[in-house]
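look at this fold:
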Amino acid sequence: MVVICTSTTVPINTCNDVASDVLTPAEFWEVLEHKCRNPATFVKSITSSRVVQEDHDKTGQVTSLTRLVTVNGGEHEIEEIAILKKPVMIEFRIPSTGTSIKNILSRGAEQMHHPTDIYMVSTYEWHHPEVEEGSEEHKKLTEYYWHMSNETVKHTVAVAKKMKAEGKLADLMKE
């Protein structure tokens, strides 16, 4: 059995961004919350999803939700539980496989002087009881997961930027 762990860090804002494209931590958190309810826009392999349970704290803030997703057009729904720790982290757990994915909104070292110095950090943990440690399959899966996690994180940031440019982010923040 192997457990494959990867992580990726991507800047949300860069020095090349025009002022209107810069995302604040609050705006990016709204994107992450939206991703919980609407993951297909952000994760290419997810073809559909539906929220079946939502929990809130006494202030009304969402603290967790359970969704059922289909992947790559399949018929089988996979249960995912999202634990929201506003304003910094959402952990997605897939009970049937032990998979854990964390989306973290991280502030950079220059945050005091540059409030938009923020990053998306994602960590992934995939369990493969059928794969032998050090095997060719282990090496192939590790490489696949590194590539996939990198692309998913970059895509999430790109979607957030597009949402802001199209004015959709302002609508999310009103909800």
